[in-house]
Amino acid sequence: MKRQTLESRLLVLVTLGLVAFGLVMVYSATSAPAALARTDPMSYLKKQGVYALIGVALMMLAARFDYRSLRVFAPTLVLSALFLCLAVLVIGTRVNGARRWVEVGPATFQPSELAKLALAVWAAAYLARHPAPRTLKNLWRPIGVLLFAFCVLVIAEPDLGTAIVIVLILAAVLLISGTPMPTLALGSGIVATLGLIAIWFEPYRRTRFFSFLDPWKDPQGAGFQTVQAMISLGSGGPLGVGLGQGVGKVNYLPEAHTDMILAVIGEELGLIGVTAVIAAFAAFAYAGLRVALACNDPFGKRLAAGLVALVCGQAVVNLAAVLGLAPLTGIPLPFISYGGSSLVVALLSVGILLNIAGRNAGTARASVPDRGRRDSRPRAAVAGGR
Fold first, then answer.
1. 342 and 160 Cβ atoms separated by less than 8 Å
2. 98 pairs with which residues across the strands?
3. pLDDT on residue 361
4. The three-state (H, E, C) secondary structure of the chain, written as one string
5. Which range has the top average pLDDT, 105-114, 217-226, 236-245?
6. Could you give the C-alpha distances from 194 to 7, 39, 100, 198, in angstroms and in order?
7. Potential cystine with 133: which of 74, 138, 155, 343 (Cβ 3.0-4.6 Å)?
8. Is residue 40, in this structure, part of any structural domain at all?
9. Interatomic CA distance for residues 34 and 42, integer angstroms
């Protein structure tokens, strides 16, 4: 980076703080169950620590790598992601009935995580060269076709939550590119309808959706995970029962170290802990969007918006599910939940965002109404031409 901006410092501080906090919470959520099972209490922490080191190293490299070079690799990235999402359905390791992971030696990789980043890069590159779609016909080809292909492959794993995040990423890039709100609203309505159809025709998704509406109707069955999350959150009160002292993670709360880690935070650190996590992601979104709006490069502006949606969109989906505001989707909480692929891709995304911020430091902020095709010109130049 050429020089650090306030946004860059805030992004680094929030990101590293969340990663460190996540390591603490992963250990808290896994050590007691592992000890009871007479396995290594440090096993999850060691694995997550390795992924954190890899992710931070990639973040530092990406922060120094010219993000504009990614435009050249955008088609290759998106085709590779499509191939891997298809391959995982054939050769992927089945865990809890889902094929989402590919084993590479001692490590596992989730192709759908790469798909999020690849789609953000490709959409930013495409919309930097072409006018923003203004009608559904323009939106359908090629953006809609590619989105449909990714969503079908990801839902087939099955992983509806990642499909939702992919839609949010693309919506953010389209919005900052200048796509009219009526067109975006109509396109979102079509996507939501297709999502409801996917939920209705898959029994386990339909059961999960209706259990969200009333989890206490079947607290020992379909509503068990949501109910246990509510109990854990409620048990913490304002200050929590103390770090490491929660009991929900011990054979009560399913997936406590991944999807439901916020419930562990709520029980052990209380309302203050949950509020701090939400505030951290709000600060990340604020800094990231400031970077996007300040960027005069059309590709950088769109890519920054997509990367902020990649991190914060995923956080919103997870937070809403754990707090009982949305159905459970199996999406981890960025930087905090256990999961190597998610952590590495999120940190890599932050590195790219830092590079965008650094290369645009000191330049004039692009005008917000100038979202469509004129955001590559500094404001002073535009004013001088009038």
1. no
2. 95
3. 63
4. CCCCCHHHHHHHHHHHHHHHHHHHHHHHHHHHHHHHCCCCCCHHHHHHHHHHHHHHHHHHHHHHCCHHHHHHHHHHHHHHHHHHHHHHHHHCEEECCEEEEEEECCEEECHHHHHHHHHHHHHHHHHHHCCCCCCHHHHHHHHHHHHHHHHHHHHCCCCHHHHHHHHHHHHHHHHHHCCCHHHHHHHHHHHHHHHHHHHHCCHHHHHHHHHHHCHHHCCCCCCHHHHHHHHHHHHHCCCCCCCCCCCCCCCCCCCCCCCCHHHHHHHHHHHHHHHHHHHHHHHHHHHHHHHHHHCCCHHHHHHHHHHHHHHHHHHHHHHHHHCCCCCCCCCCCCCCCCCHHHHHHHHHHHHHHHHHHHHCCCCCCCCCCCCCCCCCCCHHHHHHCC
5. 236-245
6. 37, 44, 21, 6
7. 138
8. yes
9. 8
Q: 99 phi and psi, to 5 degrees?
A: -105, 95
Q: How many CB atoms are located within 10 Å of the residue 285 CB? A: 18
Residues 6+ apart with CB under 8 A from 130: none
Nearest Cα neighbor of 337 from 256, 266, 274 is: 256
Nearest to 273 by CA among 310, 245, 250, 301: 245
Contact status, residue 262 vs residue 274, Cβ threshold 8 Å: yes
Maximal CA-CA distance, the chain: 74
- In this structure, is residue 148 part of a structural domain? yes
Q: How many folded domains does the chain comprise? A: 1
| Euclidean distance between CA atoms 95 and 97, whole angstroms | 5
Q: Is the pLDDT of residue 114 over 80?
A: yes
Can you give the residue range of the structural domain that contains 33? 6-384
Q: pLDDT at residue 376 above 50? A: no
CB of 21 within 8 A of CB of 273? no
Tell whether 142 is covered by a domain.
yes
pLDDT at 385 (0 to 100): 38
- Whether the CB-CB separation of 288 and 300 falls below 8 Å is answered with no
Whether the Cβ atoms of residue 109 and residue 100 lie closer than 8 Å to each other? no
> How far is Cα 140 from Cα 190, in angstroms, rounded to an integer?
11
Please tell me whether the overall predicted TM-score, pTM, comes out greater than 0.85 for this model.
yes
